[in-house]
Design a protein that fits this description.
Layout: E1 19-20, H1 24-30, H2 39-55, H3 61-74, E2 77-85, E3 90-93, H4 102-117, E4 121-124, H5 143-149, E5 153-162, E6 165-175, H6 182-242, H7 248-278, E7 287-289, H8 291-308, E8 312-317, E9 324-326, H9 328-345, E10 351-359, E11 362-368, H10 400-410, E12 414-419, E13 425-431
Parallel strand pairs: 8-10
Antiparallel strand pairs: 1-6, 2-3, 2-6, 4-5, 5-6, 7-9, 10-11, 11-13, 12-13
């Protein structure tokens, strides 16, 4: 029986995918060997605790299994292999034991047997009793294995089971005097099985999210060109209608259609940009930026709209702030977006404050408005895609705060919102300083 390397699965004659745990219950019931006493008990408990930590150390399957195998080899195992079951066969993590030999082929048969029955197997050259009921001690078929083991080594195979399935097999080869207790190894296998389940669930979630993002990006690109043609055609029709004083009604309808098309174009642009940011594609260079200059420029951009609405924008920037490290245009867009939202939701005659000061983590920037605030049930969702605290308000794509969050986090910072109904809202973000 041959097992291919890494992620290339081999056909399995015995195993046809994940095994029901009904077969594993016998092994569970059989693991009744008492743990060692004294110092041996302490070492076994420490190994179990460390195995649990290693199995929970990463949601990346390969990294997690590497951590577990590294733990076992660091505790005296000569070799350690994990072979996971799939519908096509096995996928191996770790170097094979005795490759290209009769003993290696026997071990492969044993792996398939453990995966099929869910029963742990322990082999020693003397075929000494394992002390655990229900554990196989293979005799006649293991002559080649016995010769490879010699007099002072043991080979143990335990199932990796969780959620009603046998997910794979852990094989450990070590000297008899350093070989972990069989009951302990079975418990290690259960911990690793739970870790495998978590890693597989995480991988499926990531792949599902990636497929969704790919579909959004593909759809967005497909829509941009025809939408551009619509906008261009509407613009030309509106220009001609403006030349004819009798086409007042046509002008109004064309203007409304053009505004709707422009909003669709803005939505597609924001959606594609957010998808690229969340996928880790950061289309900008970074350099040292003055926080004071960023605040001044963002306020200057929002001043005309604020003045027209009768609002005052007041700044409070701590003198001699360190520079932040990032892309100036992206950071300016974040701050302009927050100021624009504050202008939109602040009543006439009120004051908007923009503050910046040094903090333990870098530079802390706040935009404080005097609006009616954000409802408590809306606050936790304020940075979600398409979420709008006031869905009835005209304009806006519901992506501005999501993009601001993505930009800030891409710079190694964090963003937050705080509000009390009737007392305005504060949007704040923190950025690391230049090193």
């Amino acid at each position: 029986m041959q097992i291919r390397e890494s992620r290339v699965a081999r056909p399995a004659s015995r195993t046809k995918g994940p095994i029901s745990l009904a077969a594993v219950r016998a092994a569970r019931a059989g693991v009744l060997a008492p743990l060692p006493r004294g110092q041996g008990l302490i070492e076994s408990l420490q190994l179990l605790a460390d195995a649990n930590a290693a199995a929970a150390s990463s949601l990346d399957l390969g990294q997690m299994l590497t951590a577990v195998m590294g733990l076992l080899t660091g505790r005296g195992a000569e070799a350690c292999v994990v072979e996971l079951v799939s519908n096509e066969g096995f996928t191996r993590y770790g170097a094979p034991i005795w490759p290209n030999t009769e003993a290696g082929r026997t071990v492969a048969d044993l792996v398939a047997r453990v995966a099929e029955t869910g029963r742990p197997t322990c082999i020693a050259a003397s075929f000494e009793p394992s002390g655990v009921s229900g554990v196989s001690a293979v005799g006649g078929m293991s002559g080649a294995v016995e010769r490879m083991l010699g007099q002072r080594r043991r080979l143990t195979l335990v199932p990796l089971a969780a959620d009603g399935r046998v997910l794979g097999v852990l094989t450990v080869l070590s000297a008899s005097e350093t070989h972990p207790d069989l009951g302990v190894l079975v418990e290690v296998g259960r911990s690793v099985g739970r870790g495998i389940c978590n890693a597989m669930a995480y991988r499926e979630a990531v792949e599902s999210s990636s497929r969704r993002e790919d579909a959004i990006v593909s759809l967005g690109h497909d829509l941009r060109n025809p939408l551009g043609v619509v906008i261009l055609t509407l613009s030309e029709m509106l220009e001609r209608a403006n030349l004819d004083e009798q086409k007042v009604g046509d002008r109004r309808r064309l203007e409304a259609a053009l505004r709707a098309a422009d909003r669709m174009h803005e939505l597609l642009r924001d959606l594609l940009e957010l998808s690229r940011l969340e996928a880790g594609h950061l289309p900008f260079d970074r350099r040292a930026c003055s926080v004071e200059a960023l605040v001044n420029d963002a306020v200057a951009l929002g001043a005309p709209i604020a003045n027209a609405k009768g609002l005052t924008i007041r700044t409070d920037v701590e003198p001699n702030l360190p520079q932040v490290y990032g892309n100036r245009n992206s950071l300016l867009r974040v701050l302009s977006n927050l100021i624009g939202n504050a202008i939109e939701f602040t009543p006439k005659g009120e004051v908007i404050e923009v503050r910046a000061h040094a903090c333990r983590d870098g530079i802390h920037v706040e935009v404080v408005d005097a609006g009616e605030g954000i409802a408590p049930e809306s606050l936790p969702r304020i940075f979600e895609r398409f979420f709008q605290a006031k869905p009835s308000r005209p304009g806006g794509t519901g992506l501005g705060l999501s993009i601001a969050k993505a930009f800030v986090e891409a710079h190694g910072g964090r963003i937050s919102a705080a509000s009390e109904p009737g007392r305005g809202a504060t949007f704040a973000f923190t950025l690391p300083v230049t090193r």
